[in-house]
Amino acid sequence: MNMQALVVEFRIKPDHVEAFAAAIIHNARASRDTEPGCRQFDVCRDPADASLFFLYELYDDEAAVQAHLKSAHFLAMNEATASWVEKKTVWRYARVDP
Questions:
Q1: What is the Rg, in whole angstroms, of the alpha carbon atoms belonging to the chain?
Q2: Within a domain: residue 86?
Q3: pLDDT category, 1, cuts 50, 70, 90?
Q4: Which residues have CB under 8 Å from 19's CB, separation 6+?
Q5: Does some domain include residue 84?
Q6: Which of 58, 62, 79, 83 is most buried when burial is the number of CB atoms within 10 A of its CB?
Q7: Cis omega before residue 98 (within 30°)?
Q8: pLDDT tens for each residue of 26-61
Q9: Which structural domain, as residue segments, surrounds residue 16?
Q10: Kind and range of the H or E run holding 7
Q11: Model pLDDT, residue 97
């Protein structure tokens, strides 16, 4: 198995921080609950800066990542929140251990 890790950082516009928090948590739970290839989806937030979010996602393989990116819950969240995002950075890694 070639597990894939996604690390995503969001800087959210101040007027949309709480709405984004609710949307991204809903997306994370839907991913964990309905996507067989999603092993972990952590939503983290900077305690000193409420507008900065950090996601750690772990998938079985590239096919599972692609299934996530095509899922109805991801597409709906992505469309609904696009204008709220000031900056988004995505890093992709192959999990090495364990």
A1: 13
A2: yes
A3: low
A4: 81, 84
A5: yes
A6: 58
A7: yes
A8: 999 999 999 999 999 999 999 999 999 999 999 999
A9: 9-94
A10: strand 4-12
A11: 83
Average pLDDT of the segment spanning 22-26: 98
Contact 43, 24 (CB under 8 A): yes
- Global pTM value: 0.93
d(CA 96, CA 12): 31
Extended strands (E) in 13-97? 38-46, 49-59, 85-94
Domain assignment of residue 81, yes or no: yes
Total number of domains in the chain? 1
Angle between helices 17-34 and 72-81 (to 10 degrees): 170
In this structure, is residue 2 part of a structural domain? no
Residue 63 reports pLDDT greater than 90? yes
Assign residue 82 the CATH number of its domain: 3.30.70.100
Q: Which residues contact 16 (CB under 8 A, 6 or more apart)?
A: 81, 84
